[in-house]
């Protein structure tokens, strides 16, 4: 997990330095923040669809194996555990908050709406 975060942090740092050097970079900040929000929402929706399909497959498997194992609905599992789902949800929320902060910061500094 931390190996995935390192490149993102490096890119953010380099992007911040580039923003300090060139004021023209700030023109694209709202579009970037909108893209982050859109990607976060799409990712959240994709996880919900995949989890629903995973649960359906788990249930179908129990139905097919009914004669061997019986039907126990407690055996139906979600794709992610509760802790993993919480971590994913917190990560998505932090991306959305960061996107909002970027947009608000850019508006404050440059008077753009």
Number of helices: 4
Total individual domains: 1
How many β strands by DSSP? 0
Dominant shape:
elongated
The main β sheet shows up as: none
Strand content: under 5%
Structural class: mainly alpha
N-to-C order of helices and strands: HHHH
Rg over CA atoms, rounded to whole Å, is 21 Å
Average residue pLDDT: 78
Helix content percent band: over 70%
* End-to-end C-alpha gap: 36 Å
Uncertain spans, ≥5 residues at pLDDT below 50?
none
List keywords for this structure.
113 residues; mainly alpha
Description:
By secondary structure, this protein is mainly α. It has one domain (28-110). It has helices at residues 2-21, 29-64, 66-69, 82-110. Helix 2 packs antiparallel against helix 4 (82-110). The longest helix is centred in the middle third of the chain and has 36 residues, at 29-64. The chain is elongated, with a radius of gyration of 21 Å.
